[in-house]
Design goal:
about 550 residues; alpha+beta; 22 strands
Length: about 550
């Protein structure tokens, strides 16, 4: 569902409380998502996200610190040049439409004050961000629309900015009467079809228009349903909603989808590399196995060589010669290379015999190595399904260290991190660490752990290492850690998933094995059913930054 004008009004009302404020930093989380770091008088530093994706466009304040793209987009570079360290004097909504205007006080190259405006249009597939100077001329836009694409409204540097065309309707605060047989979308500014149905449903049940509108305009909550959301309860859906504070709800909305978009945009090369290497190894394995099967017939070529030497002076050179076998007396057909004499063919078969005999041990080693390679890249493929941007960047570093990927040179010097970004939960003063890739697993198992801590890992699947910093965890804690191990694994959608656990002292690192690989001397096994909702609740309640 796209955001409507009345919902944007409640958001704008909350944003206006932070003005005036100073714009410190501008970064792009993805190609269509920009975060502004603002310094406010009362709330300190806040992070304002403007999202203009076609399906998930919205504007909200986030508490999370997401990883930004290493290379800023052209539009972000223009914003930094034109608006860096500027003051946001006010934030205005245009006529209850889905358009916000940020009034910016900036300085030009000469140090003189200029009044620029940043328009954020949250209009579904037409969502956009446009920077306009004080004369109303477009400086730049996130999505440029030249004249040959839309002659009525050109969004391009140098063009005059024109607001989206509005049909003549009534202001929602000035409504005296409404036609209940017609959608409010066609009568009143700021309504979406969803909100119109809710108003009509409530009014049909005796509630006054003014009371419902007052609830919308004063709302500070977001009601999220499986496929819809709004700042008031949508009673006509007859469904239970998850209720969040307004900004937290907007931050939570579409979180999973956007996480995947950000990962693909920032770490798409990691996904492609893992898929390519996995496909290559799977294609290579049957070829090696076929070569090994062929090598088992090596004695046949020794026989060919012996027979050719024995009957050398009796054989007439042909493409295929037939000579009797020493033991059975039956004729054996031997292909002849017409470029060589009989003795040369015999020597060639002896060479093939020795080569295939030696190749068996080499092929078996290559097959084992190929199977390990498939297992390793399947593990990385599984880890990429559960990771965030930071985890994916760590997987990229792991592939660079293994010389699978080339190191990317960036103009921006990356900050050196000593510790991997492990998920840390704290339950009743007991620390639980969850690794979502091999580097994190290795760090948890070999650096954070002590001998008496308890270690968990799903059985017969690729998955996370879970470390419980407790010598004698009770049954509740064991089941919790086991469920975390089952959830962050390939067995996430299964039931009765077996999870092995043991003290860290029972783990052994295998020399030459991939990063994070260990074996257990003795262990216990518990069977658990992963519960997604329960896991998400634990992460919300117990996550420690």
């Amino acid at each position: 569902m796209a955001m409507d004008g009345l919902l944007l009004f409640t958001i704008t009302k909350q944003l206006q409380t932070y003005c005036p404020c100073k714009l410190n930093k501008i970064q792009n989380l993805s190609d269509e998502e920009i975060v502004f770091q603002l310094h406010t008088k009362n709330a300190g530093t806040i992070r304002l996200v403007c999202n203009v994706h076609s399906n998930t466009n919205r504007i909200y304040i986030t508490q999370k610190t997401e990883t930004s793209q290493s290379q800023p987009t052209n539009f972000v570079m223009v914003l930094r040049k034109q608006c860096a360290q500027c003051m946001i004097e006010s934030i205005e909504q245009i006529h209850y439409d889905r358009v916000l205007c940020f009034h910016l006080q900036c300085r030009n190259e000469l140090g003189d004050y200029t009044q620029n405006r940043l328009y954020v249009e949250c209009m579904g597939k037409y969502a956009n961000m446009i920077l306009v100077n004080q004369e109303g001329i477009i400086i730049d836009a996130l999505k440029r629309i030249p004249v040959y694409e839309n002659a009525k409204r050109t969004i391009h540097p140098g063009a005059t900015y024109v607001l989206p065309k509005q049909v003549q309707k009534v202001n929602p605060t000035e409504v005296t009467q409404v036609d209940m047989d017609t959608s409010f979308v066609d009568q009143i500014y700021g309504f979406s079809p969803l909100l119109s149905k809710e108003f009509q449903f409530r009014m049909a049940n005796g509630q006054a228009y003014a009371d419902i509108l007052k609830e919308v305009l004063n709302s500070r909550s977001l009601y999220v349903y499986p496929h819809d959301y709004h700042c008031i309860e949508l009673t006509h859906l007859h469904q239970k909603a998850e209720v969040y504070p307004l900004m937290i709800g907007l931050d939570h909305l579409y979180q999973a989808n956007e996480q995947q978009i950000r990962i693909k945009e920032q770490c798409g090369d990691v996904f492609r590399t893992v898929d390519k290497e996995l496909k290559k190894a799977k294609k290579k394995l049957p070829k090696l196995q076929m070569s090994l099967e062929k090598s088992y017939d090596y004695k046949k070529y020794q026989q060919y060589g012996d027979l050719l030497f024995a009957y050398m002076h009796q054989i007439k050179k042909e493409k295929v010669v037939h000579v009797p076998d020493f033991e059975t007396g039956q004729d054996v057909s031997i292909p002849i290379d017409m470029r060589l004499d009989i003795k040369g063919n015999a020597n060639k078969y002896y060479q093939k015999y020795h080569k295939m005999k030696r190749s068996q041990s080499i092929l078996q080693e290559q097959i084992e190595a190929c199977k390990k390679e498939i297992d390793y890249f399947e593990q990385l493929h599984e880890q990429l399904q559960h990771c965030n941007v930071t985890d994916a960047l760590e997987i990229r570093q792991e592939l660079i260290n293994a010389h699978v990927m080339m190191h990317k040179r960036s103009r921006k010097q990356a900050k050196h991190k000593n510790k991997p970004n492990v998920l840390h939960l704290q339950v009743k003063d007991i620390d639980i660490y969850i690794g979502k890739n091999n580097l994190q697993n290795n760090y948890i198992t070999h650096h954070l752990s002590r001998k008496k801590d308890v270690w968990f890992h799903v059985k017969d699947y690729h998955g996370s290492h879970i470390l419980c910093k407790c010598e004698r965890p009770d049954e509740t804690l064991i089941r919790m850690c086991a469920m975390l191990a089952a959830y962050f694994s390939k067995g996430q959608m299964s039931s009765s998933v077996p999870v092995d656990y043991c003290p860290v002292s029972q783990l052994k690192k295998v020399p030459g094995a991939p990063v994070g690989f260990v074996t257990m001397k003795s262990y216990k096994t518990i069977y658990i059913d992963p519960d997604r909702e329960q896991i998400e609740e634990w992460i919300r309640n117990y996550k420690k930054s």
